[in-house]
Amino acid sequence: MNQAQSFTLDGADVPYRPGQTIIQAALAAGRYIPHLCYHPEFKPHGSCKLCTVKVDGRDMAACTTPAAPGIAVESDTQEINDQRRMLVQMLFVEGNHFCPSCEQSGNCMLQAVAYDLGVMSPRFSHLYPSRPVDASHPEILLDFDRCILCELCIRASAEVDRKSVFALSGRGITKRLIVNAASGRLADTNLAASDKATQVCPVGVILRKGGAFAVPIGKRKYDLKPISARALEDAPRPPGARHG
Amino acid sequence: MPNDTLPEPGVDDALNRNRRDPARLVQILREVQTQYGYISPAALTHIAGAVGLPRARVEGVAGFYSFLHTRPAGRYRVLFSDNITDRMQGSGRLFDYFCSKLWLERGKTSEDGLIRADLTSCTGLCDQGPALLVNGFAIPRLTEERLDAIIDLIRARIPVPAWPHEHFEITENVRRKDILLDHALQPGDAIRAAIARGPRAGLETASNERSWREAVLSAPQGPVATLEEIKRSNLRGRGGAGFTTGLKWEACRSALGQMRYVVCNADEGEPGTFKDRVLLTRYADLVIEGMTVCAYVIGAARGFIYLRGEYRHLLDPLEEVLEARRNAYLLGHGIMGQPGLDFDIEIHVGAGAYICGEESALIESLEGRRGVPRNRPPYPVTHGYLQQPTIVNNVETFCAAALIAIHGGEWYRGFGTAKSAGTKLLSVSGDCARPGVYEYPFGVTIRDVLEDCGAVDTQAVQVSGPSGVCLDETEFGRRIAFEDVPTAGSFMVFNRQRDMFEVARNFSHFFAHESCGFCTPCRVGTTLLRNCMDKLHAGHGSQHDLTEIVDIARVLQATSHCGLGHTACNPLFDTLKKFRPSYERRLSSLAFSPAFDLDGALAAARQMTGRDDAGAHLQPEAAEGAGR
Ligand SMILES: Cc1cc2nc3c(=O)[nH]c(=O)nc-3n(C[C@H](O)[C@H](O)[C@H](O)COP(=O)(O)O)c2cc1C
Ligand code: SF4
Ligand code: SF4
Ligand code: FES
Ligand code: FES
Fold first, then answer.
1. Domains, chain B, with CATH or none
2. Residue A152 alpha carbon, nearest atom of ligand 2
3. ipTM above 0.90, yes or no
4. Whole-prediction pTM value?
């Protein structure tokens, strides 16, 4: 491994290996930067913009910006967290997120990030899109109302499952997730419940039928620890490094 | 998945014309769309199988572009240009006239499947509006009489290609010529000059042995010497960002790759811009000459012209120019007898997406995908078309490069200002007597342009389109130049009768319609901004909405993925600062006011119960306010 190269994050040194992005280096060093569309197992594409930080004063997405020696990264500032709160509010009003009746509640990254950032209200008028549920598949349910268009399922299905079950259509605010079938129904795709694509949705779109309340509310992933702590536990570490 | 309907017979022709190449997917879809009025589910399935892509990916590409439909959208698809200049020329009234005569609802296909009418972003005919597109072909100068004629043609079910030619006559309105528009070059002059530069200039052998051009013994240093002239000229890109062309070409030339590509950005989507249309109509040889010089300099064998769908009427004439140049050995193998000097150009036609003017989105579209801007770095100069080194330049930039190849960089620098070499084409429209294309040396003042175009009583000028800057009369002494008021060419004039709030509202609709939707801030933020503006327009706004606009705009500026999102709030910032009274006039109260008018919703109940006393109103003050 290369000799320690480092940059600063909110004033403190963060070591990195060449090739790492800012967010990878930060998470590996036990430093949380809020994110939604970034997933350690996939190539980052930088669409949610929650991870936006200031790099030497310039706004950059931490998940796509390579770490570089000596850069000064600001993340946990009032201004940047205000921006993040607004981005989260945008995502909430764009879809239909009724958390109390959502079976993903407690396991949902959007909800967890909102709590962690202290988002207290949706702020904007809801857009109330009409996005019908697809319950055609015997094992998997799609509740499009909650899709935040992070493209993780698309990436997982194409890159890991080699199936391309999911894709995007539409443009701008009409952009939406579609499935790979002329009928438009999930049952007519070759999705299997064991596919990676069924395991990556950060919110409550791709749901396993029948397993909704196996873990009761109150005992779920982000009920026990805030996402800022959980994300660090889940981050890949250099071999030998300790978690926590 | 089995499908009981077969694809239309023409689908295979479209596939074959495009070599079943997935990179040509947008072209395939566009051709099927043209032939059948929409792309049927069976056609999508068939195309996906033929080009070897998942069906959903093909459907997703079709769903991205405004001019592609996956449901029947009428035999006649009529799109009224909805730029603010069209509005000022009465397009709103004409659209209503058209719809009411044909019993149409906006965006809904008529029950007999004959026709669908909707609005579209600026079609680049601002100097001869209002304009529309029918099945992709542009019709300028709309009047009620012209619409009556169109309605008759539609009712008689005459196919668009058989409509009287006069409806489609587009004029160039060139009003002021300078070194570019007044050039006296013959096709081939610039290429000949570039080749001739080598031996005379006596430069050392190029440091870049990777470029196969250096193997052409008769002109070993021509590319380098020409590049030096481009660099010496200080030419900067005319498409908006203003990057130094010489440095771009040099970076592309020295980038590692198997192939290099030259792309002419003829997407010209910025509302109020139409100078590239004029260049492609009257000066196509100069554009192509510039592309060929670029190919010679960087060592490219293939080029593309990405022509916006709105300029479909230019496709056939441009193909003819390309063919004539092939016949004259100005394109193809061994151009001008130079062994190894091979270069040819294909035209790709867009399908209604402003974002495809952004260079990396343009390349995505060229590769047959949704026009979503890429993450940068890497930039197109090193990783462009098919991940190979690629030059993307504006139409006008290539024209200037051709002039420089002949006359040299020193000559070119003699025009314009110290920091902005050469001339700039402006597309002037709006409230003026002589709209059209004006070429000026950089440094011309706003006031001089206003005088030349016959603008009187001017309140404001929007320079460089909605993503540019709105100038009020205190700023008319400022200059068109990179160091003062940079511009991609749009110059829209507003007189004192115009409501600058409505101008900004029109622009907010434009950005919401054109956001590609990739990133959260732009996808949702442009819609929230549009909704705020509509709320103000409806008289339901409050001071709170004005601060909300500023807050949303800041987040867009800071966190958006590309220039569209970064600049989408410019018109709102500018008009809020410079024309604030036009906003405040509309506020129903100075504090918070809900988007939903509760009291208004009770009106029906009041009518039914015959009550109108104070108890039947929720907010007596607001009710009075609404009546104003
Ligand atoms: C949203 C957006 C739209 C753009 N549209 C155009 C366009 O229509 N034509 C153009 O030449 N450049 C456009 N650009 C700029 C291009 O990305 C690119 O900078 C330009 O084509 C480079 O050519 P130049 O250096 O010759 O200006 C656009 C940029 C953005 C962000
Ligand atoms: S379904 Fe889930 S994983 Fe897929 S794009 Fe939507 S939010 Fe992301
Ligand atoms: S800023 Fe807008 S246009 Fe640009 S990538 Fe984001 S959503 Fe797309
Ligand atoms: S996590 Fe970086 S943009 Fe989404
Ligand atoms: S809480 Fe239901 S989707 Fe996040």
1. 10-64 (no CATH), 76-171 (3.40.30.10), 189-413 (3.40.50.11540), 423-498 (3.10.20.600), 501-584 (1.20.1440.230), 598-627 (no CATH)
2. 3
3. yes
4. 0.92
